[in-house]
User: Which sequence fits this backbone?
């Protein structure tokens, strides 16, 4: 209930910011303004994640979409650096699909690639930010990220969530770990050989 109220208040306070971002995206890239993607949530249930669109729909000569790193627009790069692209996820919090803090929701295709330990990340609702996001974000390996997710699950508390919230603001200000070299965010997760 507290998260629902906080999400309502945050959405109302940030409504002018979200309206301005929507207008800029529409003027630069056209519709749609919101990017929708299927992700895994609590107990590995699939839900629709909402984010501000950051990439164009540009295709190559073969008609296929270009790599993410080539489709990322200047406004999209700014939104990702400042994490403003995540603001529509307040709607996911309002719907009870996400929390403010928790492991980041990943794609359904990754589920069969997880080890039993890595699958523990679905024991809680996914979050807009999390322990892995304030300790390396996308600059760390998948294995390090999953280790941090499981550590959070084993140690989660209100005090820890408040600490992560504060560290998130610091991480956004520093703008570090946004992506790995040559990728818009991170390379695809193909599994951890040592954990299979």
Assistant:
């Amino acid at each position: 209930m507290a998260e629902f109220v906080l999400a309502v208040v945050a959405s109302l306070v940030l409504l002018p910011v979200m309206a301005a971002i929507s207008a800029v995206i529409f003027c630069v890239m056209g519709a749609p303004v919101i990017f929708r993607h299927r992700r895994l949530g609590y107990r590995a249930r699939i839900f629709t994640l909402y984010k501000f669109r950051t990439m164009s729909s540009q295709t190559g000569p073969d008609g296929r979409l270009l790599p993410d790193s080539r489709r990322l627009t200047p406004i999209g790069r700014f939104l990702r650096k400042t994490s403003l692209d995540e603001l529509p996820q307040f709607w996911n919090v309002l719907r009870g699909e996400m929390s403010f803090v928790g492991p980041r929701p990943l794609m359904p295709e990754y589920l069969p690639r997880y080890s039993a330990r890595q699958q523990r990340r679905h024991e809680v609702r996914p979050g807009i930010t999390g322990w892995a996001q304030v300790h390396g974000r996308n600059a760390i390996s998948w294995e390090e990220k999953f280790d941090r997710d499981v550590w959070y699950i084993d140690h989660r508390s209100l005090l820890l969530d408040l600490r992560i919230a504060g560290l998130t603001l610091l991480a956004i200000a520093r703008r570090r770990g946004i992506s790995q070299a040559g990728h818009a965010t991170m390379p695809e997760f193909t599994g951890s050989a040592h954990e299979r």
In short: The chain has a mean pLDDT of 87. The chain has seven helices and four strands. The CA atoms of residues 25 and 142 lie 30 Å apart.
